[in-house]
Amino acid sequence: MTDEPGAIFIPTQNHFFGRQGQRPRYIIVHGTAGGSQAEAIARYFQSTENTSNPVSSHYVIGQDGTIVQCVREADGAWGNGVVTAGHAPWWSSDLNPNYISISVEHCKSSISNSEQLTEAQKEASFRLIEHICKRYDIPMREADAKGGITGHFSIDPVNRARCPGPYPWDELFATLAQHHTVS
After folding, report:
1. In what order do the strands lie in the sheet with 8-9?
2. Model confidence over 102-116: pLDDT tens digits?
3. Is 150 a domain residue?
4. Bridge-based pairing state of the strands 67-69 and 26-31
5. Is the pTM of this model over 0.90?
6. Domain for residue 3, yes or no?
C-alpha cells in the first residue's frame, strides 16, 4: 500500500528503517539525469540493492505523470547523499538529511537534467508535493531552517549543483499558496 493515493508501489530495500526519531520537514526535488519512465527508474533502484552504490527516492514521477513510490514515507530514502561545502545554511553535517526529508525524483532523459518537466509531470509533482506537505505540516514554500521545499542542490552543491535542473519553482509556490488559502 502506498502513502500517496494513486501511486504505484515498486519498493526497494535501499532505505533507512525509521527516521531516527526525526520527522519529515523538507521535500527535496530531484531530477534523474536519465530515463523517462518512473517504473524503469524504480527498477533501477532495485537493481542497485546489494551493490556498492545503492540509491533510492521516496517517489519517482515519470514524464507521463505516473507516480511510483519506492520507499515508505515512514522511512528515510537514500536519495540525498551527504551535505557538502557551500550547502544551504540550515543543513548540518551532524544530521543525515534523509531522516528529515522526503525525496521526489522527476524523470529527465538528459544526463544534464536540462529539460523542463512535461505538463503531466508538473501537475503530478505539484499535487504530490501538496499532499506530502499536508501530511507532515511541511511549509508550502521555499525551504529555510523551519522546513519547506528545495532542490537537491541545496544539500550537495558540489556534486548535485544541476539537480533537479529546470523546475517551475515560482509556479509551484503560487499554486500551493492558492490551494492553501482556498482549502
Report:
1. 8-9, 67-69, 59-61, 101-106, 26-31, 148-151
2. 999 999 999 999 999
3. yes
4. unpaired
5. yes
6. no
